[in-house]
Every structure is written in C-alpha cells, then in structure tokens.
Amino acid sequence: MQRRLIATLAILTLVATGVTGCKKKSEEQAQTQPTQSQITTAAPAAPAGGQPAASATATTGEQLFKQHCAACHPNGGNTITPAKTLSKKAMADRNIKSADDIVKIMRNPGPGMNKFDEGMISNDDAKKIGDYILATFP
C-alpha cells in the first residue's frame, strides 16, 4: 500500500512539475522573490574569454543548493525519485562518496534530473554544493 502511495505521489509530481520543471520553478521563484543575500551580494562579472558564468549571486554551498537543488531535493529528499535521496547511506549505496562524485552527477545526471553544466554552475560552485550536501544530510 505504501509503495503504491509513493508511486502515485511520484507520478503526480512528475505531471505537476514536468521532468525539467524543478529548475525552472526555482529560477522563477528566485526572480520574483530575491533573498536578502541576493539583494546585498553582487557576484563578480564573468571574465571575458569564454569562462563559465558565475552562479547568479549565491556564494555559499547552502545558498547555491537552495537556488539550484532544493526544489527537487527538499530537506535532502527527492521529489522525482524518492529512493534516491541525498542521505549519506543512500548516496554511498550508489557509490557517491565525495563532492567530486556529486559534481559528476550534476554534470551527467540520470533520468529525471536536470543537467547542470559549467555554463550554469561553475566547477567551484558545484563543489560548494557537493560539500554542503555531504555536511548537511546524514
């Protein structure tokens, strides 16, 4: 019974948000309701010469996680694939044990997750997100 409920909720979530809707919804919220840190902290302009763009105005792993990941991974969960949480045990079961492993998943995700390339999230910011996930979700 519980599996059927979880499956139904997952399907409803997919229908409601679409496979790529999480990122879009998160960006719309960020545009309509900027946080105080987004108002007071300006990101430096990306240098010329094809360097990846800096991630909006967020500077900490927590801010970056909230900006790019929290819509689909609230409190370390997973709205698209509930079994694939951000808990250390669940990630270790999938051989994800370091921030670099998390960055690899962000760059080349499986079905249902948005791809976050270097143009969207710099390598430094992606590593901050990975470090935040490892430090935050038991």
From TrEMBL:
Entry's Gene Ontology cellular component terms: plasma membrane-derived thylakoid lumen
Biased composition (Low complexity): 29-60
Pfam families associated with the record: Cytochrome_CBB3
Molecular function (Gene Ontology), one example: heme binding
Region entry Disordered, spans: 26-60
Chief place where the protein resides: other
Record-given protein name: Cytochrome C553
Native source organism of the sequence: Citrifermentans bremense
